Amino acid sequence: MSAVARWLGRAEYLPTWQAMQRYTDTRGPEADDELWCLEHPPVYTLGLNADPGHVLAAGDVPVVRIDRGGQVTYHGPGQLVVYPLVNLRRRGLGVRGLVTALEDALVALAAEGGIRAVGREDARGVYVEGRKLASIGLRIRRGASYHGLALNVAMDLAPFARINPCGFAGLEVVDLATLGMRLSPEAAARRLVPHLWRTLHLPGEPRWVEPLAPTGSG
User: Fold this and answer.
1) Which of 60, 108, 140, 153 has the highest local Cβ count within 10 Å?
2) Which residues are catalytic?
């Protein structure tokens, strides 16, 4: 019952989502927990019960309704997405504990760059002086999690102005680069995963393995 991390590079949204669903639906009780780390091409995603009115002007960016909680967010190049495929019963985590674990890992990474980030109970995610640095949206099925977190690393933030991010009109968004912490998404993943290993109670030391074929990444 070990755990592994994978760097999938830039992976299309739809096949990655489908691969997460397949893994969750077919995993047995002894299956590894996995952290999938990647970037997506530009896409807006709407949660299961999200109000499409929060998409103000999608333009040429695809809008996909998916099966996580939450409202609308944007994924694009320069953003690190991490999908924790974790057996929550095995790790002793409930939904609230999982969200807190993701937030705590993100706060710890930001602190490495001298950035004071915080989570919020009323609007889950991670913020710096009221600006949203990372969003969290999850789905739990068969006692396991999928979907996950999106950390703005060094990206074009303009597409966020064409939505109400996470359903909040006028919410400002920021990335690590603007805050003075300059990393690539892959470098951010390599630094975030050890924090996730700790907060998610994963066994041993972080172990990176080759990408998965279903995402088209290798």
Assistant:
1) 153
2) 166
d(CA 181, CA 11): 24
- Contacts by 57-61, CB closer than 8 A, 24 or more apart: 57/162, 58/162, 58/163, 59/162, 61/159, 61/162
Per-residue tokens: 63? 């809008």
Task: Tell me which residue of 45, 34, 43 sits closest to 10, measured CA to CA.
Answer: 43
Low-confidence stretches of the chain (pLDDT beneath 50) = 213, 215-218
Residue of 13, 61, 45 lying closest to 167 (CA atoms): 45
Q: Report the pLDDT value the prediction gives residue 214, as an integer from 0 to 100.
A: 52
pLDDT at 1: 66
Asked if 125 and 166 count as a contact pair (C-beta separation under 8 A), the reply is yes
Q: What superfamily would CATH give domain 15-205?
A: Bira Bifunctional Protein; Domain 2 (3.30.930.10)
Burial category of 59 from C-beta neighbours within 10 Å (exposed 0-12, middle 13-18, buried 19 and up): exposed
Domain ranges of the chain: 15-205
DSSP letters, 148-216, are EEEEE-S---GGGGGB-GGG-TT--B--TTTTT----HHHHHHHHHHHHHHHTT-SSS--EEPPPGGGT
